Q: What sequence folds into this?
């Protein structure tokens, strides 16, 4: 191994060590309360070393989000293979349930992704971590949009909806529900007498009824 290769390997190891430490700090604390000092201490690096790799807490949040998106996309790839014979409406529900599973398996990454507020500089293409993060983050909504288009063609999804708008609204609906469940589960159980699992099932039924053709909506009932 040459000098350049060895240095790049060491850099990658340090990057991973820092992101590992950042995850422990961000997931233990509220992400907004975590500081670069906390991460430096957890990683056992000086602040100077930390800032050599990550210019800000926002940059660290993007690195954590990137890991989350990669995990989600791997889960979606498996789901795609499992449901490839279903119609588009059935596949949409399977992808949505995969996102619910992602929230359950990777709660810290789920929270970090949603807590991050997009900066104009993120979209400039100058930060490789930001660029990778947004490329990976586009894949789930892109998959939903493509599946809606396929559903219009196979007759399982209404033809009078806009695939781009529908993909964003469906994503927002599901994320909103998961956030409510994350913060209000005890309230829903005690005051509304609603079970989480049944509420998630109901959400997918309403999605079928809102964008599915009549036959598909009945199939989901």
A:
């Amino acid at each position: 191994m040459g000098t350049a290769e060895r240095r790049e390997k060491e850099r990658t190891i340090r990057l991973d060590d820092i992101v590992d430490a950042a995850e422990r700090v961000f997931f233990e604390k509220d992400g907004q309360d975590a500081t670069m000092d906390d991460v430096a201490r957890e990683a056992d690096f000086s602040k100077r070393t930390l800032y050599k790799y990550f210019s800000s807490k926002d940059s660290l949040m993007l690195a954590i989000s990137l890991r989350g998106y990669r995990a989600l996309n791997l889960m979606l790839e498996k789901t795609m293979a499992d449901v490839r014979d279903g119609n588009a409406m059935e596949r949409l529900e399977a992808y949505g349930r995969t996102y619910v599973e992602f929230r359950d398996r990777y709660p810290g990454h789920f929270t970090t992704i949603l807590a991050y507020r997009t900066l104009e500089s993120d979209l400039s293409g100058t930060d490789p971590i930001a660029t990778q993060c947004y490329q990976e983050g586009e894949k789930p909504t892109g998959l939903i949009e493509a599946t809606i288009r396929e559903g219009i063609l196979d007759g399982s999804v209404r033809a009078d909806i806009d695939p781009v708008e529908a993909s964003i609204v469906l994503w927002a609906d599901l994320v909103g529900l998961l956030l409510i469940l994350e913060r209000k589960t005890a309230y829903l159980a005690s005051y509304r007498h609603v079970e989480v699992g049944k509420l998630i099932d109901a959400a997918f039924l309403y999605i079928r009824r809102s964008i599915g053709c009549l036959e598909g909506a009945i199939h989901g009932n």
User: Anything to note?
Assistant: Residues 163-192 form the longest helix (30 residues).
